[in-house]
Amino acid sequence: MDNAVQTGRSPETPSSPAHLRTEPTFYNVAEAAGLFRLDQSTMYRHLRSGSFPGLKIGGRYVVPRVVVERLISDVLAVGQCVDVAEWASRWRDQAMAAGGAA
């Protein structure tokens, strides 16, 4: 299987223009940590504790791109520092309330 497909990226070549490239659906821990300028061990710790939303598939953790996008959007909407653990907890509570109301 093509490595680009395995990582959730489009199979386009790295030399293609930036506006033609698509973002991955999921970031691996190294990519997610890099986005936030964190050490990988710190990102793993947050994922394992549940203070940062992610998926564990087998023994591998990944972070959905939409989590990163929503976090950025919420930070910009609030206009101040956001504690990611509190943010993740509110997100979980909202999802549980929405799921329980159905």
Entry keywords:
102 residues, 5 helices, mainly alpha
Task: Give a quick precis of the structure.
52% of the residues lie in helices and 11% in strands.
Write the topology of this structure.
Layout: H1 3-6, E1 26-28, H2 29-35, H3 40-49, E2 55-57, E3 60-64, H4 65-78, H5 84-101
Q: Give a count of the beta strands, DSSP E runs of length 2 or more.
A: 3
Q: Helices and strands: which structural class?
A: mainly alpha
Mass-distribution shape: globular
Measured on Cα atoms, how large is the radius of gyration?
A: 15 Å
Strand content: 5-15%
Fold and architecture overview:
With 102 residues, this protein is mainly α. Helix content is 52%, strand content 11%. The protein is built from 5 helices and 3 strands; from the N terminus they run H-E-H-H-E-E-H-H. Strands 1-3-2 form a 3-stranded antiparallel beta sheet. Strand 2 and strand 3 form a beta hairpin. The model is unreliable at 1-5 (pLDDT under 50).
